[in-house]
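Re: PPS structure - here you go.
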Amino acid sequence: MSLPANHAPIPELFVAPDAARARRLEAAALPSWDLSARQICDLELLMNGGFFPLRGFLGRADYESVVRDMRLADGTLWPIPVTLDVSEVFAARIETGQDIALRDPEGVILAILHVTDKWTPDKAREATLVFGADDVTHPAVAYLHRTAGPIYLGGTVTGLQPPTHYDFRARRDSPNDLRAHFRKLGWRRVIAFQTRNPLHRAHQELTFRAAREAQANLLIHPVVGMTKPGDVDHFTRVRCYEAVLDQYPAATTHLSLLNLAMRMAGPREALWHGIIRRNHGCTHMIIGRDHAGPGKNAQGVDFYGPYDAQELFRAHEAEIGIEMVDFRQMVYVQERAQYEPRDEVEPGATILDISGTELRRRLREGIEIPEWFSFPSVVAELRRTSPPRSKQGFTVFFTGLSGSGKSTIANALMVRLMEMGGRPVTLLDGDVVRKHLSSELGFSKEHRHINIRRIGYVASEITKNGGIAICAPIAPYGATRRQVREMIEEFGAFLEVHIATSLEECERRDRKGLYKLAREGKIKEFTGISDPYEAPETPELRIDTEGQEVDACAQQVLLKLESMGLIRA
Ligand code: PPS
């Protein structure tokens, strides 16, 4: 299919609204596949023409050809396999020649796929040829092996409706929306800037200069679908982009959000980005050093060379129909109090810079970020999302035998933290949780696991929302405690405190008379007596309560929290 001129509409895969209604009714009876987050991103760009000339998820011949040669079977340049991966159970029900309904997580039918191909891909080969190595430190390779289903379905897509977005609706444009916008404003040359990071002054300077030099208008086109794990979330980023928009001369620049699921495939991804931007009506694209790079591989070496993406793009720009604009690294020259391209700086001048790692450290520790580096409004947004550690949520997780003193120390700690103020504190004590959250559970290994995971979930929500969670269950199994740690560390710090009071001492105290009953066999599966307790090997803190006052034990926890920067005494 030939490419429409820049501002003419691009073919979409949607049917007219009346036909969509009728097709939706028919489709309700079809086998249906619930799309993953990544598949929804892919489907949206297939349907709205962002992935033109694709007319559906790749069939086998196109897939093999794309993996091997970056081209569809008919020779058209297409660097990334856009495939529909499904489970074995689902695939077993599907024959080629059949239609299936593609649904969003709420069950809404977004499209119908006419299945032409079904096959089991060689994922290791796909990883090696598309991403450069079968190495799970590459996020797309990890996704391929750990998340994607084992069978691929290929076929043509009939679009019924685009996925619904409730966030930043006014900033989301289809390729045809943007083409119409550019046509209306008379923007004949448009330069796209792809990004997955907040914009600081250097980015603003380089995009502004790139547009001026290409005599083009600027499209800031950030990806809001899926980016690299660990990136700043898109809600924060969009607020940052909106803050930067005022810095460009009025009516020269447009901000639009792209619901792309990035693969971080470096050079191949750069070509893909170029094709997508061409489809969105752009004539130029800024390609920088290490474009869409995933970082380092298992050997600690970058997956791709720093200029591989630029070279590959340059070699294909005419074929894609979009011109590459070199990303000129801009640096701040102190003596001249302005940004200049690095290659134009006079010898001997003082260049100031703040690396990404240093920026994250300053945000984490609440240290000043100078105005020459970023706009105060951008820094304010980032600080709102990443407050310093002393203002972030965290979890203190006590573990130990029944009667070891967990609850008593946890209570003392809670009161001391409340005395300091600043963050809400919640105590999730073993007994209390069993009364309110886990009343139906017993003490089998499986039930203890469920119980602790529930505590972990609640603590992770508290941590995410900036509070302090203190947990005090027995939590006898190391594997479960590790899972809880992972759940919480996604949002804040996790401090494991082993209350290492010996079994003899706990039994001697026998505060609740349970050890006696356990010895008599009247309580079954009692931790330490007739059930295991796996002591943590490397807790952040280990406290032996024998011969120590409760206050002194709580003080040890407070000192540890202070040394981790979580509280200020
Ligand atoms: S677990 O293993 O983490 O799910 O246990 P937890 O939720 O912390 O509950 C422990 C409290 O329940 C009482 N209890 C028992 N403990 C251990 N084993 C058995 N079989 C048992 N049956 C009842 C006991 O009082 C525990 O309270 P603490 O505060 O730990 O002494």
